[in-house]
Amino acid sequence: MFYYSIGNSKTGFIKDQVRLNPFIVKTKMPSRELDIQDLKISFSTPRGKLTAVNGISFHLNQGETLALVGESGCGKTVSALSILRLLPEPPAEILSGKILFSGQNLLSLNAKALQNLRGRSISMIFQDPMTSLNPVLTIGEQMAETLLRHTPMSRPEALQKSADLLGKVEIPSPKEKLKHYPHQLSGGMRQRVMIAMALACSPRVLIADEPTTALDVLIQAQILELLGNLKRETGMSILIITHDLGVVAEIAQRVLIMYAGEIVESGPAQALLDDPRHPYTRGLIASVPKLGALKKTGTRLEEIPGNVPSLDQRPSGCAFHPRCNWAIEKCKTQKPPLREGEGQRQWRCHLEPGSL
Ligand code: SF4
């Protein structure tokens, strides 16, 4: 293991020691597994049609781990759920855009084609496995169901494969665990079961929505290491949704920062954490607690003032302006331009880089 420092002396932002897995290596990024283009999603509510995702574009390369980061309510989960068309439509409505998977627009697929795709080519794991696993079915029944649906396996073969998968995610006595119900397993075990189920059909893309949020730090580290190892073994691509920059430093190669339904900054993980260009990204990094730092300096933990705006109260101009320490007059009325920097860095801000 070696350590990675968030922030640098130039910006005066926090320095924090975060473990970085040594198996994150620079690889060639050959082809795009997922290509999301100008995606716009709204919800019909009693207050009218409200936009939750406002024209985002991004791609996920083959074999890459991409982190989608932001506070709750920024549109991360809505964006992720839309990839597999898991949003209830209505009230959700995909107003425009494309979701390309191997060149095919998932928005044009019918229900049967989508069902064939889910769990087989693209899988998803959720934040809380207790609400995702069926409490009245054994682990074996639930795992075998996925395999029976997507493969020509017989039931005994599906159960054997399920036990193999549980072994792969380091669950002890896997054959025994197949007979257990979800409530008989710990939180970490349940999350491993979810990962095993998601990997059952060797998907090319795994979408992980806050997969470690409900877990303690030790189990979190084990799950992240497991995901990294499985990614190396299978070559799958991972889109991980998180608000935890420690998780980003641990697992991601590239990062998208999302605020109020838009991507406000993107770039390679290490460069973005070392030198954040957008005030929101800076605020997120500054608010990461650091062991011992507060005691040493006697200062309060930094925070971003205010909250993420609700969908019906999106500020004009730059949506971040009511919370931004650097806001100038035109931030209130004019949408900031997309700026591009060296090394695939992009961010949206009216201010020149270096003026923060
Ligand atoms: Fe802050 Fe203005 Fe930049 Fe928005 S555009 S992040 S309000 S400085």
Question: How is this structure best described in words?
Answer:
With 356 residues, the chain is an alpha/beta fold. The longest helix is centred in the middle third of the chain and has 18 residues, at 217-234. The strands form three sheets. The chain has an eight-stranded mixed β-sheet with strand order 8-9-10-5-11-12-14-13, with helices on both faces. The protein has a four-stranded antiparallel β-sheet with strand order 4-3-6-7, with helices on one face. Strand 11 (254-259) and strand 12 (262-268) form a beta hairpin. The protein has helices spanning 76-83, 111-117, 129-132, 139-150, 155-168, 174-177, 187-199, 217-234, 245-251, 269-274, 279-286, 293-297, and strands at residues 2-6, 16-20, 32-45, 48-61, 65-69, 92-101, 104-105, 122-125, 205-209, 237-242, 254-259, 262-268, 338-341, 345-348. Iron/sulfur cluster (SF4) is lined by residues 278-279, 318, 320-321, 324, 326-327, 331, 336, 349-351.
List keywords for this structure.
356 residues, alpha/beta, Rossmann fold, 2 domains, eight-stranded mixed sheet, four-stranded antiparallel sheet, 12 helices, globular, disordered N terminus, binds iron/sulfur cluster
